[in-house]
Amino acid sequence: MQYMVVLFLLVAVFHTLSAEGLHLSNLSPVCLRCICHASSNCNKTIGCSGGRCGPLQISRQYWKDAGRYVLPEDNPNRDGAFPDCAEDHSCATQILKQYIIAHGKDCNHDGITDCDDYAMLHFNLKSDCSVPIDATNYGLRYSTCRPTANLDDDDDIT
What we know:
Pfam families: Destabilase. It catalyses: Hydrolysis of (1->4)-beta-linkages between N-acetylmuramic acid and N-acetyl-D-glucosamine residues in a peptidoglycan and between N-acetyl-D-glucosamine residues in chitodextrins. The protein is mainly alpha-helical. The chain is built from 7 helices and 3 strands. It has helices at 2-17, 29-40, 60-65, 81-86, 89-103, 115-124, 137-145; strands at residues 48-49, 52-53, 58-59. It has a 3-stranded antiparallel β-sheet. Helix 2 (29-40) runs parallel beside helix 6 and helix 2 runs antiparallel to helix 7. It is globular, with a radius of gyration of 17 Å. It starts with a helix and ends in a 13-residue tail after the last helix. Residues 3-22 and 149-158 have low confidence and may be disordered.
């Protein structure tokens, strides 16, 4: 009986930690909009160029590292599954969330994992997210909408 209870609890914990069920603290709608703004000015018609696709400028390897998320009813093995998802704002946001779930950490080593870390991770990727982004075009755009205590999650930043 104890074995069944433990098994049930493990299944419940796994379900809670799945990408759809996990709540990432400090990953607010403002943060998501700001990362989108930093990536492409949140251009939802940007398409694919230079191996990066969509408003979040996601690469195929990033998509794979995030778990190959696709549009509903799609197959991740289909040739166009990656660009179709990356070019769709909602689907691309799910890729970003899954990447953060899989690889998120305190990139700037300030003791808090927040939007600054997620922005650094998105730009620098999982291999070394600690590289400063301040002097990059991405970092400059991020600094113009960086979430602060004064911003509300309902503020419009595009």
